[in-house]
Amino acid sequence: MEQALSRRAASDAISDQGWRYLLGALRTSVPVGSLVQATEVAARVVAACGSDADGHLRADIRPDRVVLTLQSLDQAALTACDIDLAHRLSAAMRDVGLRTEPEIGTGAPRSVQLVEIAVDALDIAAVRPFWKAVLGYTDEAGADGPKDPIVDPVGQGPAMWFQQMDQPRPDRNRIHFDICVPHDEAPRRIEAALTAGGRLVSASHAPAFWVLADPEGNEACVTTWQGRDDS
Known about the structure:
This protein has helices at 7-14, 35-49, 53-56, 80-95, 124-135, 186-195, and strands spanning 20-22, 25-31, 57-61, 65-70, 114-121, 138-139, 150-151, 159-164, 175-180, 199-202, 209-213, 219-223. It is of the alpha+beta class. The chain has 2 domains: 7-95, Gyrase A, domain 2; 114-223, 2,3-Dihydroxybiphenyl 1,2-Dioxygenase, domain 1 (Roll). Strand 10 (199-202) and strand 11 (209-213) form a beta hairpin. Helix 2 (35-49) crosses helix 4. The longest helix has 16 residues, at 80-95. It comes from Micromonospora tarensis.
């Protein structure tokens, strides 16, 4: 098993290639002109990964883009292999006149991102099995404790994690979305949310996360990898 990389090391190693670090994974987008071209891109990136494809690569194929995600799936973490694959995939796209990019400030509908659902709970070990069962989710690799996050085994739905409460809070929502965006996309996303009628509840933990609320007080967090620790 390879050593997992720190957040900073992973981000620094691939940012200039158009990839962004999001929640323990690398993600990028390849703009294309058709579904036919998208399938061709997918075939090229799988070939570029070679035997590492199944254990590291996920591709979401759409008529206008192919979204690529890299992670050492057996560890749910990033390793040197993922960094090498990111460079190889970016080079493979350049060879055919395409590019890997995070779609920040390009006129794209949005940047690359990952979404998590957070559930506030007094007894995480008690509520976690319900959500695991009702969603058809499973444990993340290497994280099967009674308070660990749960994930979609086929990688389509957002991960769910559980935030410890110290007392009941009946006067506020207890489920919220965490939208993990590239660190250089966060200011743009927050400004858009505020312009759309939202308000800033707290920036005390920025740039790890900002707490925002809609006009009725429902909360969401915009998160990045930065500001969490030195790694």
